[in-house]
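User: Sorry, folds how?
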Amino acid sequence: MSRGSHYCCAPGCSSNTHTDLDRSFFRFPKDMKRCFIWIQNCGRLDLQAFDPMHLYVNYKLCSLHFENSMFAGMCGNKLKKMAIPTIFNNVCADVKPLLSVEIVSTELKADENNDDSIEVKLESDLNISDSTTSGY
């Protein structure tokens, strides 16, 4: 029984497990803060509509989007616990990748259309030098 192919969800990236056997594919983190960073950095703002567990189950980024310092060990098939993807060629040049983010507070606000929205205030504050591996 063969498993289905996995595809990288980064815009413009065509990596998949069927044709790119030398690449690793990584699930989005379950942690909301880190998941938010991954969404921002890869430029897939449409993914903000989903909770982290949905992204963890259904979306992956390939190893091309992580700097060597983000990998645990030499094989490139396991990420450090606080790994952040920062290599994206097709993301708008005006967007600077986030290295880390701390959600300081959230406020529920009503916008002009009487729809509820959440305002998120951010502060850079995570340490990505952690050498422990993640539970992906």
Notes: The chain has one domain: 25-123. Residues 25-123 form one domain. The first strand starts at residue 25 and ends at 27.
